[in-house]
Amino acid sequence: MSFQAYLDNIEAKTGKSAEALKAIAIGKGFADENGLAPGIKPGAIIDWLKDDFDLGHGHAMSIVAYIKGKRN
Predict the structure, then answer these.
(1) What is the pLDDT of residue 70?
(2) Closest Cα to residue 52, out of 20, 40, 65?
(3) Angstrom distance (rounded) from CA 1 to CA 32
(4) Which residues contact 48 (CB under 8 A, 6 or more apart)?
(5) DSSP of 2-71, one letter per residue?
(6) In angstroms, rounded to a whole number, what is the distance separating the alpha carbons of residues 11 and 69?
(7) What's the Cα-to-Cα distance from 32 to each of 11, 25, 46, 54, rounded to whole Å?
(8) Cross-strand partners of 35
(9) Among 68, 69, 70, 66, which Cα is nearest to 11's?
(10) Number of domains within the chain
(11) How far is C-alpha 17 from the chain's CA centre?
């Protein structure tokens, strides 16, 4: 599955784009415009996405990658 397919599946499941989830992560203090916020480990974001959006580990990891700057 391509990275874009992961992002498309996430949006279909949650109703939120990767960019929208990044914005929420920024609002929660998990991230900033440059990537993960200082002191934040990927596991914190993965747990949040699993708990709040019922994402699986792979899909949550793709959002972490997106937040860190991966775009394709």
Answers:
(1) 87
(2) 20
(3) 28
(4) 25, 28, 30
(5) -HHHHHHHHHHHHS--HHHHHHHHHHTTSEETTEEPTT--HHHHHHHHHHHH---HHHHHHHHHHHHT--
(6) 18
(7) 21, 8, 16, 23
(8) 32
(9) 66
(10) 1
(11) 9
**Domain that includes residue 34, residue range:** 3-68
**Amino acid present at 70:** K
At 14-41, the pLDDT tens digits run 999 999 999 999 999 999 999 999 999 9
Per the listing, tokens 């899909």 go with: 59
Q: How many other β-carbons are positioned within 10 Å of the β-carbon of residue 64?
A: 22
Half-sphere exposure of 52 (CA within 13 A, CB side): 13
pLDDT at 52: 97
Does the global pTM surpass 0.85? Answer: yes
